[in-house]
Amino acid sequence: MNKKNCYDHPVYYELAFSFRDIPYEVGVIQHTIKEFSRCEVRSLLELACGPSQHMIELSRHGLQFEGLDINQAMIDYSKEKAKAVGIDAIFHKQSMAEFRLERQVDYVFIALGDLYVRSNEELKSHLCSVASALRQGGLFLLDWCIQFEPAKMFKLEGDSWEVKKDDIHLQAHVVMKPFDHPHQLFEEQLDIEVKDRGDSLSLSSYSVKRAIYPQEFLALIKNMGQFEFIGWWNNWSLDKPLLASTEDIFRPITLLRKL
Ligand SMILES: C[S@@+](CC[C@H](N)C(=O)[O-])C[C@H]1O[C@@H](n2cnc3c(N)ncnc32)[C@H](O)[C@@H]1O
Q1: Are residues 96 and 193 in the same domain?
Q2: How much distance in Å is there from the Cα of 20 to the middle of ligand 1?
Q3: pTM of the model as a whole
Q4: Could you tell me if the CB of 122 is within 6 A of ligand 1?
Q5: Do 20 and 119 lie in a common domain?
Q6: Same structural domain for residues 115 and 176?
Q7: 74 with 140, same domain?
Q8: What averages of pLDDT result for each successive group of 10 residues across the chain (259 residues)?
Q9: How many Å apart are CA 10 and CA 15, to the nearest integer?
């Protein structure tokens, strides 16, 4: 059977990744703003926003939401979602590897490891794009994105989970496999089997990403001279900085500030 692209089915994608505690994560974002920003934070741009899962909660806290994605179906879905609850959100159809905004934002966010770059050049142009999109003193938060514990991320069997809601039953499986070590490339295969009332649907997506390791990331940031490294923490917990003794790294967050 021909599989369809997950990203062309935002409803099922959103449900498959609904395991996150969005109010808690938005609380952490607010905490970073209070503690570390050096400008008034009124707007937030989510890169590779997909169905914009944090949008409603962020807007509830007074932040103007902007989303950037290359997939039109995801942008249309996010726009409809915003319209349905009366949020005045802004969307950009561009690649996060190189983008330009007309107006700067005060906060940039990437969720769940969605940093889509495939080479050194793309990584640099991505960081330069973020630097020019972000106001001085604003923050850049990366959820996962950096491969602190590659052996765990690249485990052969990947990760599987199930979600049931109303009459919809999803089985999701994601596996990440390195295939070009000198260029630090890995492939990410996501499969979602959907049973929606009487209908069955097989969805999948395949991406190639360049792995980013912590010390090369710090060196790159230092060389660029556009960001200040603020810190990195385990599992979205600002009271758990990543240390030599940290075991079981899961959903680490990294925070930079625009100089
Ligand atoms: C796995 S979804 C995640 C959405 C969101 N980050 C979340 O955590 O729910 C990945 C999204 O990244 C988008 N994407 C992939 N490559 C991209 C690129 N180069 N620039 C912008 N968006 C991209 C896809 O279209 C898709 O909507």
Answers
A1: no
A2: 16
A3: 0.96
A4: no
A5: yes
A6: no
A7: yes
A8: 83 94 98 98 98 98 98 96 97 98 98 97 98 98 96 90 94 96 97 94 96 98 98 98 95 98
A9: 8
